[in-house]
Amino acid sequence: MFKNLIITCLFGVTAVILGAFGAHALKESLAPDQLQSFETAVRYQMYHTIILLFINIYEGFSIKQKNTVSYLFFAGILLFSGSIYLIHLTSITAKSIWFITPLGGLFFIIGWVSMIIIFVKKMRNK
Prior knowledge:
Elements: H1 2-24, H2 32-57, H3 63-89, H4 100-124
């Protein structure tokens, strides 16, 4: 469990650092639509970091459930946000890794659906 929380905190601190970097250092070098895309990556990373904190401190989830949802969101952050960061911070083009960003989004969706299933099962067992 602490491993998940440590990884979550690392995602949180990098979201803050990258958000500040985007707001200050990239403002002059990226076009407005590129900066908006970068900000979307930071936002999605932070949203899912906050949810990861909830998941991993919520006592209603088993360790297996925490790990399953955490790993889905970890993959989503790395693939969705990570691919957008790569596109805007390196010479990698969106054309070369176009499939990675939506794959990350799919991991986010599967993570959310997994939580819905967990909560529905808990509701039925009460």
